[in-house]
Design brief:
This protein has 17 helices and 11 strands. It is of the alpha/beta class. The radius of gyration is 24 Å and the shape is globular. It binds tryptophan and iron/sulfur cluster.
Length: about 450
């Protein structure tokens, strides 16, 4: 889409499709699977559905070094769960297999503030439409918890406390808020900041890399959270020209500067550094035997110290961005528009009807298609096969090239997609019923 990408609006129904442009305009990094050595990457990673990230390196290091890391995902209950939502859950499940702690936020406050859904209705809808599906899709209860924004005091407290480091002009610049914006709308991103950062409170295990898998529409929240998290750090770790790595104190009172720098020195001595230079007036500790590559390690070592000193020590959260699925009707997929998507609670018959009438990339007539080939890159049915239904990469490649060569016809794809989705939905419906008895293993009411 060649629209101006000056600002991303999380609440609009606009679709973002020009992924290259999003990467450059918003400083999102391209996700290059080869860089990270992830074990048995799932299809979304293998097929480039996850196309971008912020600081995935933090996650990858924690994973390879066996340190704790977490996944935080959230859902605003407003209607039904569709296959677009499924891509995020698939990612969460995959990260769980890699050893992450999983937190699922039910954004009942956001649904109330932004969409007028009552808290009770929101919680009920979240369980029935989303959480049962998450469990049915294979999310494990170990190291996994589902909570509600409205019931979790520390999330709301953080939303309030952390907003001390955001001013109105920042909120306007990020979200395009204006004088008529209602204040619960203003607060909902701040509560989301609370969601993302609360997993790093001592109560939940302390500072750790956290990955938030989202669609790009949520990127403004990610940027806001990273900025606020960093603003609350006591030490900032920066490379210097001549003195290795500098650890600088931010805004500490004069009388404690020396003490705080000495404590940092002690901690960094404990992880193997020994050449230090203290500059108290500059509020700086130089780690002269450290190089730029050591900066992350130094930063991570200082996080728990900050907690001991009464701070938060937040590790800036990371994110991945997945491509949106094309809706069946051409607008953004929506929970509240029955025709725009296949829902996870659709019956096989309903799904069949939707897929059979979906827009493909096929030629106008069978003759055209056979002669010119089809275009799988703009085909909704192909996308369904690619994102969700075909596990085998070689088979997917056959479909792709068969289509382009005009050897494969749309009827064939649709038939295959309908069969696969029927099996999937039937199985999921059964598992949803089983999941009902296991809700208590996942859902927390505090
Ligand atoms: N704002 C998200 C949505 O509209 C829901 C959400 C709430 C969320 N808290 C979150 C998403 C934290 C990711 C992380 O769907
Ligand atoms: Fe899509 Fe298959 Fe038709 Fe190609 S042949 S346009 S992939 S449905």
């Amino acid at each position: 889409m060649a629209e101006e990408a000056d600002r991303i609006d999380p609440w609009s129904s606009r679709q973002y499709e020009d992924y290259d442009r999003l990467l450059t305009d918003f400083g999102i990094s391209r996700f290059d699977l080869g860089e990270y050595g992830l074990k048995d990457p799932s299809i979304l990673f293998r097929r480039g559905v996850i196309f971008g990230h912020r600081d995935f390196g933090s996650i990858s290091s924690a994973y390879h070094e066996g340190r704790r890391w977490a996944v935080l995902t959230g859902l605003a209950p407003s209607g039904k769960m569709h296959f677009g939502h499924k891509t995020v859950v698939d990612q969460v499940r995959y990260f769980q297999t890699l050893g992450a702690d999983i937190f699922v936020a039910v954004a009942d406050l956001e649904a109330w503030g932004a969409r007028g859904v009552s808290l009770e209705e929101g919680r009920k809808m979240a369980i029935e439409e989303y959480i049962l599906n998450y469990i049915a899709m294979g999310l494990r209860p170990e190291n996994c918890q589902v909570y509600f924004q409205s019931l979790r005091g520390e999330v709301k407290d953080l939303g309030y406390q952390l907003s001390r480091k955001v001013n109105w002009s920042t909120m306007k610049a990020i979200y395009g808020f204006d004088d008529s914006t209602n204040m619960s709308h203003v607060q909902s991103p701040l509560v989301q900041v609370g969601d993302i950062l609360h997993v790093q409170l001592e109560k939940h295990g302390g500072p750790c890399p956290t990955i938030v898998p989202v669609g790009v529409d949520q990127d403004p929240h990610i940027r806001l959270t990273r900025d606020i998290g960093s603003a609350f750090r006591m030490y900032s770790v920066l490379g210097t020209e001549k003195d290795g790595i500098g650890v600088f104190l931010k805004g500490a009172d004069e009388d404690v500067v020396e003490e705080l720098l000495s404590k940092a020195k002690y901690v960094l001595g404990g992880i193997g550094f020994s050449h230090f230079k203290l500059n108290v007036p500059y509020k700086a500790l130089y780690v002269q035997d450290a190089t730029v590559d050591d900066a992350p390690r130094i930063d991570i070592a200082l996080e728990p110290l900050e907690v001991k000193l009464g701070g938060f020590g937040f590790h800036p959260p990371s994110s991945t961005y997945n491509k949106f699925m094309t809706s069946l009707t051409g607008e953004k997929m929506s929970s509240s528009k029955p025709d725009s998507a296949v829902f996870l609670t659709d019956t096989p018959e309903q799904a069949k009807k939707k897929l059979m009438s979906a827009k493909t990339g096929g030629g106008v007539t069978v003759e055209d298609h056979k002669r010119d080939g089809g275009n799988p890159d703009v085909c909704v049915v192909y996308e369904m096969l690619q994102f969700h239904l075909v596990e085998d990469d070689a088979h997917l490649e056959e479909i792709y090239s068969g289509c382009k060569a005009g050897e494969r016809l749309c009827g064939h794809c649709k038939k295959e997609a309908v069969e696969l989705i029927s099996v999937f939905l039937t199985d999921l419906a059964e598992k949803r019923e089983e999941a009902r008895d296991r809700l208590d293993e996942y859902v927390r009411y505090d």
